[in-house]
User: Fold these one by one.
Assistant:
Number 1:
Amino acid sequence: MGVEICVEGLTKSFGHQVIWQDVSLTLPAGEVSVMLGPSGTGKSVFLKTLVGLLRPDRGSVKVAGRDITKLREHDLYEVRKLFGVLFQDGALFGSMNLYDNIAFPLREHTRKSESEIRRIVLEKMDMVGLIGAEEKLPGAISGGMRKRAGLARALVLDPEIILFDEPDSGLDPVRVAYLNQLIVDLNAQIDATFLIVTHDIASARQVPDNIGLLFRRELVMFGPREQLLTSDEPVVRQFLNGRMQGPIGMAEEKDAAQVQQELAQLGDSAHPDTPGSREITPRLLPGPGITRPPRWQAIAGREAELRRKEVTGA
């Protein structure tokens, strides 16, 4: 079962550069959350702060009720055992085959026998569809396979929280679709708390229970998927629809007057923006034979109620 992460008033800067400030949100236990935002808004810094690799200037990060910003190194090490992390490039050791890469955390952090390690490694490789690739080196496989190997390694210690740092980077749309399905299936099977940092709008529309958006050093919104997909917040609408008109500029240099002018030029088409752009995209379902988590019934009910209100205008 996943654990809740409660973030309160989190602020982080490097020197005089404020990355983000006063960020507060709760990642519900066992749910999938996505964090969006333009490049350079500190999404990866946020992940590193959650796992205690970076210390914030202010604020708290409570993991299973323990504020990791106040823990000593030994206690922080214990809390980190709750986490698994999939880095952008998979972070595999180039000189090790996939089996040894995935076995590495078990050999490093446990006293399990090699027979037990083998059972766990093959189980996780099976979960991500890599059985038969044990002897392959990272340099001899595709980017998608490297991501899956990195995910298998993140799973071997049975974490209750899994962080994904742009898992879709460097992958073509077909591999991203396969990876998204794998994420949904895994969450349904192991019930861990997932947080995904991504730029991929299709993934953000289909995969998570919750979506957040970082922009101009602030958390603009964080909430249930259907709340963000139907939001009237200009920066949310601009990002989800991938258009130039709105607060986000090439270097985030737009002033308020320019933004108002651009949104006015969109005219009535901005409400809704473009056909279907405010619709609640159908959720990606777990594959055949995988039971849907109980929370999905409540989520489906909320989404159905929103669709009813859009149709009736109530």
Number 2:
Amino acid sequence: MKGFQFKALTASAGQKPRFEQLLDIFLQLLTYTNGDAAEALDWMNQLDKQYQLTKDDYGMGDFIEDLKENGYLKENPVDGKFSLTGKTEQGIRKKSLEEIFGKLKKGGVGNHRTSKTGRGDEANAQTKPYQFGDALEHIDFAESIRQAQINRGALDFSLQENDLYLREADHKTQTSTVLMIDISHSMILYGEDRITPAKKVAMALSELITTRYPKDTLDIVVFGNDAWQVQIKDLPYLQVGPYHTNTVAGLELAMDLLRRRKNNNKQIFMITDGKPTCLKIGGKYYKNSFGLDRKVVNRCINLAAQCKKLNIPITTFMIADDPYLQSFVQEFTEMNHGKAYFANLDQLGGFLFKDFESGKSKSVY
């Protein structure tokens, strides 16, 4: 007679090693501390005192030593200050990708495939007769030999042009994306941290593109009183400044970056929580934070129209729901024929991902 043997379930069964558990927390905290390793470790010490993150056989000192040995932290030999390594910066991006785009990894989505067949980048299971001008690297020799045997028999074997068959190829589009992030002071006003979710989305998108869509390009632009480009490695360190919102400067820089890209498919994603309030005219700033200033708004609308002529759709992610802001976004979006989402902070990543993935059906000829 068969039976079952029961064993006690221990909390440690199937768990990550202690170092990896603490590393997950550390990488999360680094996003909130703008990449300040010392502050993140101080927060971990406070959490350890309150929630007993470490055990008697593995303390915070052991964790810090493991961070250094595994290449996550560098210690300045002169002043003892910690700084992040490239490995840590990539770890933060991967953590953001897992958090925001976890469903993508489970779904195994392909690389910007289209429904078109023919000459392309990746062979599939379908075959077709060879036609003059087809790419020879896609010839299916097994199928071609089989066709030659059918046409002339195995005893008098010869391979001729009309025997050749090719595997169909799926074409992959290449997309150039500019992600604009608002770093004006309103992104941390009223006790709500809006910049951290925006940074997480940017890090997740950058990791997604560099690992799953390597032929795509991503440029990141931040805008306050002015606009400037930042590198992917700079994302954990982004901070909000005492800035107004110069959306015009951000759009102009985004358009300039996209002009240099050779891809046919181009797009702009803009994450903001407020209305445009600033322009730079000559060497001086024109600022007005009260209401919707038509002088500023009209410049934004004109740029939206220019992007439409250049076939550059703009998708706006507005993390605010004021009625007068909705009217501006609606006017801006209609002029560009783009898209707009009024997303809360929890929805931001999901909305951006869905919109990015929807562009995969575009064709490049």
